[in-house]
Amino acid sequence: MFYQKGGESGVDKFDRIYALHRILSTVRYPVPRTRIEEELECERVTVGRIINYMRSFLGAPIAFDAKNNGYYYDRKEGNHFYELPGLWFNAGELQALAILSQLIRDIQPGLLEDHLRPFQKRIEVLLANRQFGNGEFTQRIRVLGMGVRNGGNAFQKVAEGILQRKQLSFQYHARTSDEVTHRTVSPQRLIHYRDNWYLDAYCHLRNNLRSFSIDKITQINLIDQKTKEIDNEMLEEYFADAYGIFSGKADKVAVLHFTPNASRWVGEERWHPRQTGKFLESGDYELRIPYGKSQELIMDILKYGPDVEVIAPDELRLAVKERLAEAAGLYEG
User: Fold this and answer.
1) For the packed helices 113-129 and 91-107, what is the interaxial angle rounded to 10 degrees?
2) How far apart (Å, rounded) are the C-alpha atoms in residues 188 and 181?
3) Helix (H) or strand (E) holding 192
4) Stretch 6-24: mean pLDDT
5) pLDDT tens per residue, range 195-214
6) Count of Cβ atoms closer than 10 Å to residue 152 Cβ
7) Which of 137, 168, 284, 285 could form a disulfide with 133 if both were Cys (CB 3.0 to 4.6 A apart)?
8) Running DSSP on this structure, what letter comes out for residue 30?
C-alpha cells in the first residue's frame, strides 16, 4: 500500500480509520500521538482529521488523556467493545475478498451464482467507494478451467448435508462400471480437484468410505438423520494416501523416469504429498509416487508420451505399454 505524507486520498482515509480503530481496540492505555502518526504514516494534522471524523460520523468514543498525551477508547460511556459501524475491511482484505469471489465464479460458472451475486455487488460497491479498480477487477482476474463438469443441483444439497451434519440419499451413476445405484451416505467433506467437485462420505450401502463425483449425483435429498462421524485422521489415511481422487490406501509405489527434456518441469511439480524425486547421473529425473488405484496415474503418465518410462511395478509398466500400443494401433495403415 502506498501513502503520501501530508495528503489524504480516499484510500488513505479508509485504511487509516481502520488502522486507528485496530490500535485503540488492542491497548488498555492512552496511545501517544507520535505513535499514531508513525503507524498511520501521516502528519499531525491528518491524525486530527481522522479522529474528528471518527468521533463525529462514526460515533467512536475517542478520548484524550492530557497527562499521558495520548488517545484511547473511553469505555465509561457504555462502549465497552466499540466496533466500526457497517462492514469494514482494510485495502488488503477487500482486495482479497474481490479476488476470492471472482475465483469461485470462474472455477465453475453457475455454481452458487445466485448466492454469490449479492455478495459480489457489495464488494463492487465497497471497491468503488475505495477507488479501487474502476469496476474492472472482474476483467483482470481469470481462472481457466480444463475439463470442468457441470455439478448440477447436487452441489447445494451436498454442502447443506456437510454443514448441517445430516445424511444424504441420492442416485449415483458410476463412470467405471456404468452402474446406477441408490446410496445413503454420511457426508464428510467437499473436495475440489482438477476443476471438479467430489464428495468424501461414509457409504451406508458399502459400509465403508467412498468418494463420489458430484456431477454424477441425481435425485438427492437431505435426510433427518445425524451423520456418522469419521475421525479426521481416518479420513486422511483413507483418502490422502491414494493417488489423486481415487480412494483407497496406497499400497504400491510407481517408479517413473523422465527424460532431461521433461525433467525441467517435472522436478518442480507436486503429483502426490508423499512423492520423492531425484536427478540421475544420466540427466533423467526419477519420481516415486505412492498409489492405490492406477487409473488416474496412468492418464498422467500417458500425457508425457516418450518423455517418461515406467520402471516399476511390472503391472503398471504393462498397463501403460498396452495403452500405448492401443493408441498406436489407431494410426496403423
Assistant:
1) 150
2) 20
3) strand 180-193
4) 71
5) 788 999 999 999 999 999 99
6) 16
7) 137
8) P
